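Review this chain:
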Amino acid sequence: MNALAGNVHMDEATRASRHAILRFAVGVTVAFVLCEWLQWTPTFLAPVLTAVLLTNLPVRPPLKMALGLVVIMTVAALVPFVMASLLRGMPLVLLGLITLCMFVAFHAMLAGRPRVPALLLLICLAVVPVVVMVAPAMAGSLPLALVRGIALALVLIAVVHVFWPVMPKRGPPPAGATQTGSPLALALLSTAVMLPLLLVYLLFGLADALPVIVTTVMLVVNFDPQRSRTHALALILGNFAGGMLGWLMHAVLLTTPHLLFLALLLFVVLLGFGQGILRGGPAGAVALVGCNAMLIIFSSAIASGPGSLSVWLVRLFQFALAGAFAVGMMSLLWSRAGIPRSVPPAAAR
């Protein structure tokens, strides 16, 4: 009887894992293909938001939660847009307000508040003001694109939950995973990592700010100061490998430039990412960072066309350099601040 119960439990767990992977692969693929078909630029917003929501929401979002997230995204997109539009002539004041708002968002996340609203606010705070200052012609459509992206993501999440409804059981956090360091200190350090990158893009007016900044935000929020330096290096390599994979996928897509081939190619790759993300822990965080990097670079490559190899090498270098700077600065600041790393249970005995 015990063996039979164990087999039933294993079958249920396997089925739940398969459903989670299919939800992820199908939802993100459909979001990407729809945005490419409808030309909803930037086309990576909806698929990235779909991936983030599927990863961070433990249940199928009910209607009330979905509407609440759309409202949160609307406010989070409009507030930085209004701030940046009104304060274009006072960049120091604008930077100070962005810093304060980012600190509040990081602190809310680290203090145990709902993760998704704070993450949406961080994305908007990092992206919208830079685009308003660097590319004002594009800035007016960006808040609409953000709201439209999350609305599409939530609709697709509801649909994939209909076809694959079984949810994996979430166990208790592993031993030794309790947070060390106060939320106040961690929020200050996280904000200090983001500010130099925002300042560089604001001062030099770099044109491809959007992909790099979105990826950097994802890296910062997935960095765990308690994990080893190996995990930090894995995040850097995962970010670079994901970007390189996106570029290679674009090269493959050029051989058969068709929406159906795009969907098939993306679905196969996302099945692999879905399996890695489902594992959770350090490996899951690296897989999610790599997946986001792949989606952003793949979308950017489709939008800008093939280009020369040297142009894409420069873009990938800039992409990887920003990620390496963010993770390297976090590792350095966390160690200088004296925040201890977690000790595996086996080593603690």
